[in-house]
Amino acid sequence: MTDWTWIVPLPVVIPLFSAGLTLAMYRRPRVQPVVSVTALALVLLASVALLVLADDGPLVVDVGGWAAPVGINLVADRLSSLMLTISSAVTLCVLLYSLAQGRDDNEESAPVSIYHPTFLVLAAGVANAFLSGDLFNIYVGFEILLAASFVLITLGGTRDRIRAGTIYVVVALLSSVLFLVALAAIYAATGTVNLAQLSLRLPHIDPDVRLTLQVLLLLAFAVKAAVFPLSAWLPDSYPTAPAPVTAVFAGLLTKVGVYAIIRTQTLLFPGGRLDDVLMWAALATMVVGILGAVAQDDIKRLLSFTLVSHIGYMIFGIALSTEAGWTAAVYYVAHHITVQTALFLVVGLVERVGGSTSLTRLGGLAKLAPVLAILFFVPAMNLAGIPPLSGFLGKLGLLQAGVDAGTPLAYLLVVGSVVTSLLTLYALVKAWNKAFWQSPQDEPRPGRLPFGMVGPTAALVLVGLGLTFAAGPLYAYTERAANAFALRTTYIRAVLPDGERGEGESADVADEDARRQGADEDARTGAEP
C-alpha cells in the first residue's frame, strides 16, 4: 500500500479487532465501553479522512497483496466514503446512548459482555459492505450484519423479541439465499465477481441473461432495503428491539441495501432496462408505507412505516438513471440515516419519561420534558421536508430530477412524492400533538432524562441540521459522485489499472519481486548488490 491507502481497511479492521478485545474482556465490563467508544471514534476519524481523500479519486487496497481480479479489493470512492462517515457518526452516537441507558438501568436490560463485541461486529459488517469492490465480499458483509443483528434484536430474550428476531432472520436468510444464487449465476456467466471487471464483461453477455442477473440482485437487495412488496417484515421486527438497537437498524441496515442497489445499478447495469419497474416499486413503497404510518397509534410502529415509505424516495432517484436523480438520492440517503436514527433515539427517551410509546396513553410531555419535545419536533419536521431543512432540499432535488426526466411515470412519482411528504407531515404532527401537547388520560409519572442519553440524541439532531447548513458543499460532493457513476471509468481504472484482466498482483508485491530478481541476478554475476 502507498500514500494514504493504508486508511482504507481501518473502518473494517478496527471494529473487528476491538470486538475480539471486548469479548476477551467479558469479565471487565468497565473496560469494554472504553474500548468500544475508542474504536468507533477512530473509525469516524478514518472515515472523515477517506471522505476528503476520495474526492481526488478512489483509494484502492488489495487484500492479501493480490490485485483484482484475483484478489479482493477495498475501494473508497466518494459514495462509500460518504456512507462510511455518516454511518460511523451514527454508530458512535448510538453506542454512547446505549451506554448511558445501561448505566441508568443498572445494566439489567442489556448483557454488556455480549452487546459490545456484537455491536462492533455490526459496525465492521456495515463498513465492509460499503468498501467492498467484490460482490462476494459484499455478501460476506451482509452475513456479518445478519449474525450481529440477530443477537442485538433478541437482547433481553422476551417473547416478542424472539418472535421478531425469528421473522427478521427468516427474511434475511431468504435474501441471502437469493444473493448467493445471483452470485453463482453471475460467476457462471462472466467468470468473475469483481465489480470493476463485471462492469466490463456484463455488456458482452446475452441481454436476457444479463436481465435475469439484474433481477436476482435487485430482489436480494430490495428485501434488505425494505422495498415494497418486500417490506412487510420491517414494521413487525424493529419496534420490539431496545431503543438503541432499533435506532441503528433503522438508520443503517436498510441503507446498506440501498447502497448495494445504487452501486450495482450504476456500475453493472447502466442501461436502465428495469428503471420503470423500480419507479413503480418506489411509488408503491412511498404510498403504502405512509398510509401504514398514518394508521398507527404507536410511535415506534409509526416511525417504522415512515422508514419504509422514505426508502421509496431513494429508489425514485436511482430509477431516474440521471446524474440529477443519483445526486439527490445519495444526498437523501445521508439525510435520512441521521434523521431517522435521531427520531428512534428520541422515542426511546419518550418511552422512558412517559412509560409507553402508545399515542393513546401518552400526553403532556411538552410540559413535563420540553427539551424532549424540541428533540422530537426538529427531526420530525426535517423528515417531513419542511423548508429549509435538509429533508426539503433532498426532496426538492428529487422532484427537480423527476420534472427534468419529463416522462409520464416520472411526473406520477413527483406527485406521489409530494403526497407522501404531506402525509408524513400529518402523521408526525399527529404523533407530536398526542404525545406532547394533548392532555394525558392518566397523570404521567415524573421521569428523568439522563444527560448521557440526551447528549448523543441532541448531537444527531444537530448533525441533521448541519446537513442543512452544509447543503451546498455536500450536494456538490454528491453531484461529483453521481458524475463518477455516469462515467464509470474512474472506478474501473482505479481497480483495474492495466485493463480488464489486471496483473492479479499488487504494486507492493511486484516491487518486492523485482528487488528479489535483481538480488538474484547480482548474485549470479558476482556484482555488488
Any key phrases for this structure?
mainly alpha, 529 residues
Please write out the topology:
Elements lengths: L9 H15 L6 H23 L5 E4 L10 E4 L1 H27 L7 H20 L3 H19 L5 H32 L4 H7 L5 H19 L8 H4 L5 H25 L7 H20 L4 H21 L3 H32 L10 H4 L1 H15 L5 H16 L2 H30 L13 H19 L1 H17 L1 H7 L11 H19 L4
Antiparallel strand pairs: 1-2
Helix pairs in contact: 1-2, 1-4, 2-3, 2-4, 3-4, 3-10, 3-13, 3-18, 4-5, 5-6, 5-10, 6-8, 7-20, 8-10, 10-12, 10-13, 11-12, 11-17, 12-13, 12-17, 13-15, 13-16, 13-18, 13-19, 15-17, 15-18, 16-17
Shape from CA axes?
Answer: globular
The secondary-structure class comes to: mainly alpha
Report the portion of residues in β strands: under 5%
User: Poorly predicted ranges (pLDDT <50, ≥5 residues)?
Assistant: none
Q: Order of strands in the sheet with the most strands? A: 1-2
Major sheet size, sense and barrel closure: 2 strands, antiparallel
Into which percent range does the helicity of residues fall?
over 70%
Determine the mean pLDDT: 85
SSE sequence, one letter per element: HHEEHHHHHHHHHHHHHHHHHHH
Number of helices: 21
Number of strands: 2
Radius of gyration from the CA trace? 24 Å
In short:
This protein is an all-alpha fold and 529 residues long. Helix content is 74%, strand content 2%. The longest helix has 32 residues, at 159-190.
